[in-house]
Amino acid sequence: MRLKDQFQFIRQNIKKNRVRTMMTILATAMGCTFLIVLASVGYGLQESVVQDTLEEQIVTKIDVYGYEEGDNYRSLTMEDISYLEKVAGVKAVTKRNQLRQIPTFTLESYQAEAMAYATDFASEKKSGIKLNEGRLPKNENEIIVGYHFRDYLTDITEGENVYDEESGEIKEEYLYQDNLLDRTIEMTVRKQVDKEEVTETIPLTIVGVLEEPSREWMKDQSVFISQDVYTEVQEFTGTPGGELGVDPQDVEEESTNTFDEVTVYATNLEEVQEISDELKSENYAIYSVVNEMKQINMLFTIAKAGLILVGTIAIIIASIGIYNTMTMAVTERAPDIGIMKAIGANPKTIKQIFLFESSYIGIIGAIIGTIVAYGVSFLVNVGLPLIIEMAFEEDMPEGLQFSSIPISLVFIAVGICLFVTVLSGLRPAKRATQIDVLKAMRREI
Questions:
Q1: 282, burial (CB in 10 Å: exposed 0-12, middle 13-18, buried 19+)
Q2: Among 60, 107, 154, 286, which one has the highest count of C-beta atoms within 10 angstroms of its own C-beta?
């Protein structure tokens, strides 16, 4: 019996029992839709959380906290920096030192206190540091400032009048309003001499402003100075990083040649794990966002597997209808089966016909279910945030996605649907091959 004839035989049966077949397909489609939509919640939330992490931290970034020596950790030196720069897959190594006092920055009649960090701007450029405006420093007395630095420059001539009595915040009109680029600002540092405070003022030129932090609640008012200015402050105070309250005579020479923050940047995401493994084997204490992402992805993988399992139960319930449909089809077509066997049809061919029919129901149901699932997913992403905001009067996080249907989920759902439907048709198909020809002709099945 030709394949074309088999499909024609299937179509004739479906036409005769159109309503029953359509209801079975509908049940299968509903099960498939339920599976996809349920699992899509896990995929959607995973995408939102992972994307959230990617926006907050650079995925190629590896923080190196120190070198393990026995039970202790030591700070990193230029010798460590040289080693890190030679590791395969490393694009850049940035090294920063925090000024160990909070200097005062003065621009005309405006003043602000901010943390200052010494860095190598050539390394920062290699790492891909982003600016909102301006450029990176080229000379030793050029600096870049955080995105919110200007918001803390306050007119000191107004005294306490700059603060709002109700909120306690600085009034807008007393904040610096002009452009900061190419403006000369004075950094004042201090030291203790015979219990008296001595200050030194270093003129600096602002040439760049860092990009706005990815989080709305984050405020970046930092100032990044050159290593030369950092050294100038150390020479003035006689202490590491200009630290106050330390007797210069008690300072060890080695302590002035270490770094507070060292960050390794990989050339791409694939290199991060290999670099991390190598640094760990060399006793460096490190942290990478990839470690965090692994834990997040593991949790969501377990959740998605559970949701898919629950969704599969719906398809299994739908398979009961398929089993019933195929059993009735075998009973109703007993005479046709008897005729086919009488003219020499192979039992395998008869079995194949009924398996094709159950597969047809599964495929059509899966296609319809997938289309409906995409529609439901769209409505969930559009409507659910609005409902939650109206019900709880809270704004949803920007970019939050409740449902996402990747192509892999579609293949998983269709595969499960097809497997279950074929499995449901096996017993009726086998029964069809066992029909006695004479009894079938007499309709005594």
A1: middle
A2: 60
